[in-house]
Write a structure and sequence with these properties.
Layout (H helix, E strand, L loop, with lengths): L1 H46 L6 H15 L4 H22 L5 H5 L3 H24 L4 H14 L1 H11 L3 H8 L2 H18 L4 H11 L3 H8 L4 H16 L1 H12 L15 H7 L3 H14 L5 H24 L5 H4 L2 H24 L4
Helix pairs in contact: 1-2, 1-3, 1-16, 2-16, 3-15, 3-16, 5-6, 5-18, 6-7, 6-8, 6-18, 7-13, 9-10, 9-11, 10-11, 10-12, 10-18, 11-12, 13-14
Length: 358
Amino acid sequence: MSRLHRTFRSAFSSAASRLTCILPGLFLCLFVALAAIGLEWIEWRWTGRAWLEALVLAILLGAVVRTIWTPGARFLAGIHFSAKYLLETAIVLIGAMLSFDAIAASGPTLLVTIVAMVLLSISTGYVIARLLGLPKRLATLIACGNAICGNSAIAAVAPAIGARGEEVAAAISFTAILGIAVVLSLPFVGGWLGMTPQGYGVFAGLTVYAVPQVLAAASPFSPLSVQVGTLVKLVRVLMLGPVVFCFSLIGGRDAEPECATGERTSRLATILHFVPWFILGFLAVAIARNSGAIPDTVATGAVKVSTWLTVVAMAALGLEVDIRALANSGPRASAAAMLSLLVLCVLSALAIACFGLG
């Protein structure tokens, strides 16, 4: 009994210690999130609509705070917790609002389009980067980051092609800034092109870097845009495994994989490590919802909780953005990233129009 008591006390003490480390940064994210919600309320009060929703405002406010003041070390654990775990939980809960009937109307054309766009985006991004004079490995990292899921894709592909630390740092430096730029500009582009809610959801899912950024970019259109955009983006993320495997076969002959910690990692372990758990969670919740296992009242509550968690996570993502980091990546790398992203947006809009996905 005493051993069990000691084990319980040790576990409780460890959990309390982790909570203490997280709280300062978590409270900072909550403060920024509440400020964003307050600004959205003011918009409604003064103009009758929210021109910028709380999701977007949270990112902007977080980035402004980070630009003016760099949070100290005691805030970092909570900011990282909010940006990662709260966000992943929110994505899982979004599965409760996914309607398979609404997605089925697109048929297999949507799946084929997603796969084709990923492969085409990697190819064009690589060619653009090479034409700008970037080394092969850096060009590959930038192309994969644009085509799949930003930093996660860069980090996953890097060991498979033997990329050096400075190449990884140069490739990921642009992701946060360009990601926010896409989130802010994409709704205006979709409106200018006259896209339907479903078409815009496909557009957001094909072009935005990260799953949470899809939520922020798609929310101004409609709930259907969020559903479609999330599903399309998750399919893009699932392409990461095959892409890493292919690059490991191509690039593994030239260089040994190098992890961020300096340890060697097997290619299979690298692939498995970068298959996010929240994809499975999202799909499990979506299946349960569409099979009737989750009632309407629970699904409605889950969606509300997901929205609140996402706003807090957006604040954390903004607090992690260092606008000055873009300058450190070099003009050619920045140009390659921006041009590749522009090409991806154009190709996605053409695919939606040509294949009737909107």
